[in-house]
Amino acid sequence: MKRYIFIVLFLLSLSGCDITHTGTRPGYIYAYVYFDVPDSKVIYDSETFTIRLYRKKSLIGTYTDGQDYAFGKSPRKDRYYELCNKFGDINSDGYPCSSRDVILTPEASFEIVRHVSIVSDNDWNANLMAGTPLDEIFTIRYFSYFPYISNRYPGAPLTSFTKTLSDLKDDEMKLILCNIELNCNSMPTDSHHHTLTISFDLDTDRTVTYHIELDFSEADTL
Fold first, then answer.
1. Fewer CB within 10 A of the end CB, N or C, for the chain?
2. What's this model's pTM, rounded to 2 decimal places?
3. How far apart are CA 80 and CA 95, in angstroms?
4. Mind listing the pLDDT tens digit for each residue in 196-218?
């Protein structure tokens, strides 16, 4: 009997060690992540194609999050607040968070995309030789939390933007999801096979580059 009581008390003591902490974070964005879109899918149509860049797993490459602020110590606590302040994401009422939270959403890239460039290893047509920027024939679609936050949280949190790459300004792709679509409505005339080099210049002095293989013989069968 004494042994049984001892085991029960031991188990109760273990369960007591797993304490759930609750707190608040100042920003709507729960997790700030590095910009990274390592996964890709190409969708061919008869007269156009779309490249989707994304990442399958969320919260890979997290830089800081609301739990760092609520339960962490400096400098982790400070990093989260500094980013909230940078993007104007400070709500005096705060947002609840728990040490048991596993899915830390919403998440956004803390790195601002300054410039996007696309080149091919083959001639695209008579005017666009291999290595020539293809910014004029590609549009980009991305999703940002910044309008929601800068307007003090009215309406839908996410705003979708679609722009020609050449029209992008160096400060507008901020607080974005790591989910990008690139659309081209000018099919190549000189080759079925192209390797695109897609580069994202970031405000942290990083350049992230991805290589996408295109096979337009697949489009010919559609």
1. N
2. 0.86
3. 14
4. 999 999 999 999 999 999 998 76
Chain segment 52-70, per-residue pLDDT in tens: 999 887 656 789 999 999 9
CA distance 94 to 69: 12
Nearest partner of 107 among 51, 32, 162, judged by Cα: 32
The structure tokens listed for 91 are 């709500």
Euclidean distance between CA atoms 197 and 134, whole angstroms: 10
N-terminal to C-terminal alpha carbon distance within the chain: 76
Backbone dihedral angles phi then psi of residue 15, each to the nearest 5 degrees: -65, -30
Tell me the β-bridge partners of 62. 33
Burial of 212 (0-12, 13-18, 19+ CB in 10 A): middle
What is the residue-wise DSSP string for 146-201? HHHHHTTS-S-S-EEEEEEGGG--TTSB-SB-SEEEEEE-S--SS-SEEEEEEEEE
DSSP symbol at 128 = S
- Angstrom distance (rounded) from CA 14 to CA 141: 50
Q: Rounded to whole angstroms, how far apart are CA atoms 41 and 165?
A: 19
pLDDT mean over 11-18: 47
Query: Cβ distance 100 to 66 under 8 Å?
Result: no
The whole-angstrom separation of Cα 140 and Cα 165 is: 6
CA distance 216 to 194: 8
d(CA 106, CA 73): 22
